[in-house]
Write a structure and sequence with these properties.
With 404 residues, the chain is of the alpha+beta class. It contains 15 helices and 16 strands. A three-stranded antiparallel sheet has the order 1-3-2. Strands 6-8-7 form a three-stranded antiparallel sheet. It has a three-stranded antiparallel sheet with strand order 9-11-10. The chain is globular. The chain starts with a helix and ends in a 13-residue tail after the last strand.
C-alpha cells in the first residue's frame, strides 16, 4: 500500500508541475488547481530549488513567476486572430497599472479614460481613441484581462468596444490577480534592453537555473547558444538531471553532442504541436524531411547548422504544393510566398531552422568533447544573418529507408 501511495503522490505532483509550467496563472476552473493547492508547500520548494521560480498559491489562483529567457527568445500572447502586437502589449501594461489603484468596480468608459491618462503620465504616445485600430488594441488587452480573471464583466461586455467607442460595461477588478501579473516590475529598468536582461537574470542559481529554464521552456537547447560556463555545467549535470526531467516532468531527455531536447510523450506540455495538423504544419514536416535528405552532412564532421539554398527551399515547397494542392488550404496553394513565410516561422519557432550562417566544426568521431568545444567557437553567429540554416535537431525527422 505504501508503494501505491508513493506512486499516486508522485503522479499528482507531476501533474501539478506540468500544469503550472503550461499555465503559469492557474485558476480554480483548472482540473489541476486542487492538486496545486494540496501540494503547495512542496511545489514552492521544488520550483524554487530546481528552476529558481517563485510560486504563489492563493484560494482564487496559483501564480508561477517564470523568468525571461533573454533577447529574442520571447513567445507572444496568442489570440484567435494572431499574436499580440506591440501596441496591445502597451495597452496591457497600462491597464495593469490602472487596475492596481482603481475602484473595485469601474465602468468601461472610465477605465478607457484612465488608461489614456496613464499613457500621458508615462510619456507613451497613443493614437486617436476614435481610430478602430486603437480600439481593437485596447479591446484585446481588456479581453486578455478577462481571460485571466483580473476583470469580470458584471453588466455588458468589452467585446463591443472595438466596433463602438460608446459601448459600455460594468467591470469588477480582482486586484489580487492584477497584483501578481507582472513577473518583473518594469520600473526596475531604465531601458527595454535592461528590462529584458533583468527578466532573464538567474540570480544566485547561475548556470544551474539558466540552463534548466531553457530546457523546460524551449523545444531544443543547442550548445552553441550557451556561454562557456553554461556548457560546462550542462555537460557535467545533464545525466543527473535526465532522471529529474523524467520523474518530475514526465519528459524524456535526448542528449546529443550538439545539444539537448526534452521530449513529451503526451504532447501536452507545449503551445505549438510539431508535427501537427493543418497545411502549414504538414508542409513544414515534409519540407524538413526533404531538406535533411538533400543536405545530410558528411558523418565525419560535427555540424550544428547547414545553410539552406534559397532555390532548394523554394523548389521543395513548389513540388509539395503541386502534390498536395487538393488537400491544402487554397490561400497557401495560390500564394507560395505566404506558404514559405508561414513554414519558416513555424520551423524557426521550433528551433529546427534559424536565420544565419552555419556553425560547423570538423572533428574526429571518437572525440565528442573536443567536437563540442570546436563547434561552439562560432556561438552567436546564428541569428545574425538573413539566410536560413538547417539545425541539428532536424535529423530526427529524416526520411527512413525501408529494410529489405
Amino acid at each position: 500500500m505504501a508503494d501505491d501511495h508513493d506512486i499516486a503522490l508522485e503522479t499528482e505532483r507531476r501533474r501539478a508541475i506540468r500544469a503550472l509550467l503550461a499555465k503559469p496563472l492557474l485558476l480554480p476552473d483548472s482540473d489541476e488547481f486542487a492538486l496545486v493547492r494540496r501540494h503547495a508547500e512542496w511545489l514552492r520548494t521544488w520550483f524554487g530549488t530546481f528552476l529558481g521560480y517563485r510560486l504563489v498559491v492563493e484560494a482564487g489562483f496559483a501564480r508561477l513567476f517564470k523568468t525571461g529567457l533573454g533577447p529574442g527568445r520571447g513567445r507572444p500572447l496568442e489570440r484567435p486572430t494572431g499574436p499580440f502586437t506591440p501596441r496591445m502589449y502597451a495597452y496591457l501594461a497600462l491597464t495593469t497599472a490602472v487596475l492596481l489603484t482603481c475602484p473595485e468596480q469601474i465602468l468601461l468608459s472610465q477605465l478607457v479614460a484612465d488608461v489614456r491618462a496613464a499613457a500621458v503620465e508615462a510619456g507613451i504616445e497613443l493614437g486617436d481613441a476614435q481610430r478602430p485600430a486603437e480600439r481593437r488594441a485596447l479591446g484585446a488587452a481588456l479581453r486578455q484581462m478577462i481571460a485571466w480573471s483580473a476583470l469580470h464583466e458584471e453588466q455588458g461586455s468589452v467585446a463591443g468596444y472595438a466596433d463602438d467607442d460608446q459601448a459600455e460595461a460594468l467591470l469588477t477588478v480582482n486586484r489580487d490577480i492584477v497584483a501578481h501579473l507582472m513577473a518583473t516590475p518594469p520600473g526596475r529598468a531604465a531601458t527595454p534592453a535592461e528590462f529584458v536582461a533583468l527578466a532573464a537574470d538567474p540570480g544566485q542559481g547561475g548556470s544551474r537555473h539558466r540552463v534548466r529554464r531553457r530546457l523546460c521552456e524551449e523545444p531544443v537547447l543547442y550548445v552553441d547558444d550557451l556561454t562557456a560556463a553554461d556548457r560546462v555545467w550542462l555537460r557535467r549535470e545533464q545525466r543527473r538531471d535526465e532522471r529529474v526531467y523524467l520523474d518530475y516532468l514526465g519528459l524524456q531527455a535526448e542528449l546529443r553532442t550538439e545539444g539537448v531536447a526534452l521530449l513529451d510523450p503526451d504532447d501536452s506540455l507545449t503551445d505549438v504541436l510539431f508535427p501537427g495538423n493543418g497545411t502549414v504544419a504538414q508542409a513544414a514536416l515534409l519540407t524538413i524531411g526533404a531538406l535533411v535528405e538533400a543536405l545530410r552532412p558528411d558523418p565525419r564532421t560535427l555540424v550544428v547548422g547547414v545553410p539552406i539554398p534559397d532555390d532548394l527551399l523554394d523548389g521543395i515547397l513548389v513540388e509539395l504544393t503541386e502534390r498536395h494542392a487538393r488537400r491544402w488550404a487554397g490561400q497557401y496553394v495560390t500564394d507560395p510566398a505566404l506558404l514559405r513565410e508561414a513554414v519558416e516561422t513555424l520551423l524557426i519557432s521550433m528551433d529546427l531552422v534559424a536565420r544565419a550562417a552555419p556553425t560547423v566544426a570538423d572533428s574526429e568521431p571518437e572525440d565528442s568533447v573536443l567536437a563540442t568545444e570546436r563547434a561552439v567557437d562560432a556561438r552567436g553567429v546564428r541569428g545574425a544573418g538573413h539566410g536560413l540554416v538547417l539545425l541539428a535537431a532536424t535529423a530526427r525527422y529524416a526520411p527512413t529507408e525501408a529494410v529489405r
